[in-house]
Design goal:
The protein is an alpha+beta fold and about 400 residues long. It is built from 8 helices and 17 strands. The strands form 4 sheets. A 6-stranded mixed sheet has the order 7-8-9-10-11-12. InterPro entries: Metallo-B-lactamas (IPR001279), RibonucZ/Hydroxyglut_hydro (IPR036866), Sec-metab_biosynth-thioest (IPR050662).
Amino acid sequence: MDRDRRITVRLDFSKTLTVLDRGFAGDEHITSKILPDIELRFKGFNIHQLGDFRRWLEGDGGDKLTLLPIHARPYHQVVYQNTSTIMPLQTYHHASSVKGLSSITTLIVGASESILIDPPFLIPDALSVVGWIKETTSNPLKAVFVTHHHPDHFFSANPILDAFPSAKFYAAPYVLEGINREYDDKVKYWPTVFGHENVPEAPKKPEEFNFSFFLLNGNPESPVVLLGPLQGDSVDHTIFWLPTEKTVVCGDTIYGRSTHVWVEEVETPALLEAWNKTIALISALEPAKVIPGHLEPGWELDAKADIAHTQKYLHLFAEKVTYAQTKPQVQDLFDFFKDAFPQCQQNLDFFLGHLSNQFGEGGKVWEENRHHDVGKRTIEGLTGYWFK
């Protein structure tokens, strides 16, 4: 075969796949022997054999593909009827309002089902998410997951679960433990900040999800893998890895480059180094798409830039706080991080105010964030990161 021949692939997942072989006129169906070692690229897939491509479309369910040859010189067109409608998982993200700390909610849409990761902090943002889900997909929402115990990633699940009553609400056991540990205090505290109209009086709690992966019906070759517990801006995160799609839903292990990073709970060198190891793990996956835990509305995803942003933030935090020879003044610490990340314009009082007071000389520690003594998490207590 002439390897310079141009192959065009046009795909409509709901209907047909069309392969156009320029310059080939014949009656045979296109098979793997006609397309050896030719790389077809679609949505991040690199498929070197057409046979692999066909197996990917058919899936494990055994559904057949109908081959319909259409003869037209000098072109040979073969249409593959995709009767199983198998498609890769699609991911979409929704940024909460600035008032809601610009937390990210992720929607994963499969062939016949969808799931949601990280409901917003505030009720108005959750209502916006409900409308966004309905606009994005007609597939039923099967489950809602939580990456970690911080309230800006689960507190206003109520409106979403009310809108989709058949959806389950899940979190890994270690995430649920963190939610339970602080639940009563958070339920009392946050209405005093945002008002009862903006946060639920009784946020729903997730059930334990005791499995390391799941599959959506209709997507047998697209597992969603739960990795954790991992260190991020808090202990005990779950990240969601979609290996087929090369996508990671990171929660607050990665921050978008438009936002300051919450480092108030990185109280020891062990926690800092554990977070760096989490980022190394994410980078080693070589993801094509990284969905961070926070990103200002209107900013686009950028896997490399957002990973680099989080790494830079932790590097400067290590330099100015964790391994600093002297304790900086509160205002100096505030100004340093403000100047180091000029593109981060929102919620400075929240992110930098708490950072500088937590670690600056003479600062006033935010007691509401002290319900769990993360400083006791030593290297010995983070056995997943070091062999001891």
